[in-house]
Amino acid sequence: xxxxxxxxxxxxxxxxxxxxxxxxxxxxxxxxxxxxxxxxxxxxxxxxxxxxxxxxxxxxxxxxxxxxxxxxxxxxxxxxxxxxxxxxxxxxxxxxxxxxxxxxxxxxxxxxxxxxxxxxxxxxxxxxxxxxxxxxxxxxxxxxxxxxxxxxxxxxxxxxxxxxxxxxxxxxxxxxxxxxxxxxxxxxxxxxxxxxxxxxxxxxxxxxxxxxxxxxxxxxxxxxxxxxxxxxxxxxxxxxxxxxxxxxxxxxxxxxxxxxxxxxxxxx
Length: 268
Description:
By secondary structure, the chain is of the alpha/beta class. The chain is built from 10 helices and 7 strands. Strands 1, 2, 3, 4, 5, 6 and 7 form a 7-stranded parallel beta sheet that branches.
């Protein structure tokens, strides 16, 4: 079975359901956490917004509520998609990157953050936000909260700032693999669970065997697709992108080339 398809994603959700896990949105995790086995399905809609809608539709069919964090860039910010995902009963949050966009200008960043947050609140009463990694920027968007408070904006949580990952197992498909942490720039958390997976089928097996943690927050990006053509293209693209990211960490020439390519992609 090909990994990172909607069919595979369905097998993951069903495995959780059959093992007695309950699904929560991220907002619910922050405000009324479930005492028993629970999982939050978090989706960072960096791009491919229509893929996000297909995932949301599948979740709705299975009775699962998830959380979708949308960026302000046009590859993510597609009003029709946001409206439909809200209509399916999912939570929507803001995937902020204002400090990177403002090139470190905190005054400008907090101003645009408020504006962008209000924009997304036209679709949903947003109460949670999540930083975008902005891997080619020197600025960590989380530093926006060094001198500001989430509560000042009516927010109850930010995954990287509000969750105790020694109690909640964190799993991400960054790099188009469940063990792609070496490709991550800021999507990294400290955890003591000691579990490692490469394929979705391994996670499913762990759930079925009863060895999966009782609490989890899982980040699944919008690269999951049943389209063979898109699936092939994304695997090729991510292979080259991941290796460029690794080379860029130690090679200034590659770093400049990679940064320029990323800038051109998001401006197109």
